[in-house]
Amino acid sequence: MRRQALQQLLRTAAALEASAGAARTLSVLVQRAGAALQPAAAPAAAAAAAGLPRQPTALSAQHTQRRGMFIQTQQTPNPSSLMFIPGEKVMELGSKSFTSAREAMASPLAKKLFHIDGVTQVFFGSDFVTVTKSEDYAWSVLKPDVFAAIMDFYASGEPLFYEGEAGGPHAEHVITEDDDEVVAMIKELLETRIRPAVQEDGGDIVFRTWDPDTGIVTLKMMGACSGCPSSAVTLKSGIENMLMHYIPEVRGVEEAPPDEHENEGLKAFHKLEQHLSP
Questions:
Q1: Which CATH architecture has domain 181-261?
Q2: Which InterPro entries does the UniProt entry name for this protein (predicted)?
């Protein structure tokens, strides 16, 4: 098709050579013929070569807009929690849970998410954000706001945590020099065998204590695992059996009670709900 167009233009150019303005017209036609044979991937260059005004392309328009994100969601065993996977790194090391708006003041992203009515908990994993909602709110209502908050955060270029704010990642799983042999083995097993499986469901689990007298290990369930109906079964049937199998000194596993700041966050949220309800 382009070759036929070129041949037609060249025949017209030859006919115009005998006219008074042949020289100028021939030059324009030759330029346009060359532009017609340019690859389709370079429309701007072809237009310039033909002496035509430059038209905006989809590519140039794309660079003037904010880069979009494709955020995936993933169900968790807890119906009140949903994983949001932004396709970007979230936590470089460890994990972090926020159970109240006051705690969320340490993180721009957590603060944005707690501004959404119905959000009761936010959890940061390595490459995902787990949001937990109140039972009074539907995900169909909350998801668009959560998408917007995550996209706005990554577009802003802000850090995940404010500088100088207390609220960095949990590091209870890190083995220290003060840990005895049993504690070190518990942490190693949690890190290599248990935490990766729990994180796939949008949660995390961290070590709290080990009592050498009773052999009881206390662990903290976080993210989607916190408050999940199946977390007790996971703790006893899965984690307890594994720890007792590999570490004879372990005689049982218990979940740590809510921290003081977690209780305060829940009380504040329930108080707000009562205030807003008619």
A1: 2-Layer Sandwich (3.30)
A2: FSCA_dom_sf (IPR034904), Nfu/NifU_N (IPR014824), Nfu/NifU_N_sf (IPR036498), NFU1-like (IPR035433), NIF_FeS_clus_asmbl_NifU_C (IPR001075)
The answer to whether the pTM exceeds 0.85 is: no
**72-156 architecture in CATH?**
2-Layer Sandwich (3.30)
Q: How many beta carbons lie within 10 A of that of residue 151, not counting itself?
A: 16
Residues 6+ apart with CB under 8 A from 150: 69, 71, 84, 86, 109, 112, 113, 129
Residue ranges of the domains in the chain?
Answer: 2-63, 72-156, 181-261
Name the token pair of 127: 């490459």
Which residues lie across from 222 on neighbouring strands?
Answer: 204
Run of H or E residues at 271: helix 260-276
Q: Are 99 and 265 in contact (CB under 8 A)?
A: yes
In the chain, DSSP assigns E strands to: 72-75, 81-85, 96-98, 119-124, 129-133, 203-211, 216-223, 252-255
Question: One fold for both 72-156 and 181-261?
Answer: no
Using CA atoms, how far residue 127 sits from 94, 103, 199, 236, in Å, is 11, 21, 10, 27
Is pLDDT above 70 for 181? yes
Alpha helices (runs of H) in 115-259, residue ranges in sequence order = 139-156, 181-189, 195-199, 231-233, 241-246
User: Going by DSSP bridges, is the β-strand pair 129-133/203-211 parallel, antiparallel, or unpaired?
Assistant: unpaired
| Main-chain dihedrals φ then ψ at residue 20, nearest 5 degrees | -65, -40
Average pLDDT, the chain: 73
Predicted local distance difference test score (pLDDT) of residue 229: 63
Distance CA 203, CA 113 (A): 17
Strand partners, 218: 209, 254
SS3 159: coil
pLDDT tens track for 126-173: 899 999 999 999 999 999 999 999 999 999 999 999 876 545 555 566
What is the total residue count of the chain? Answer: 278
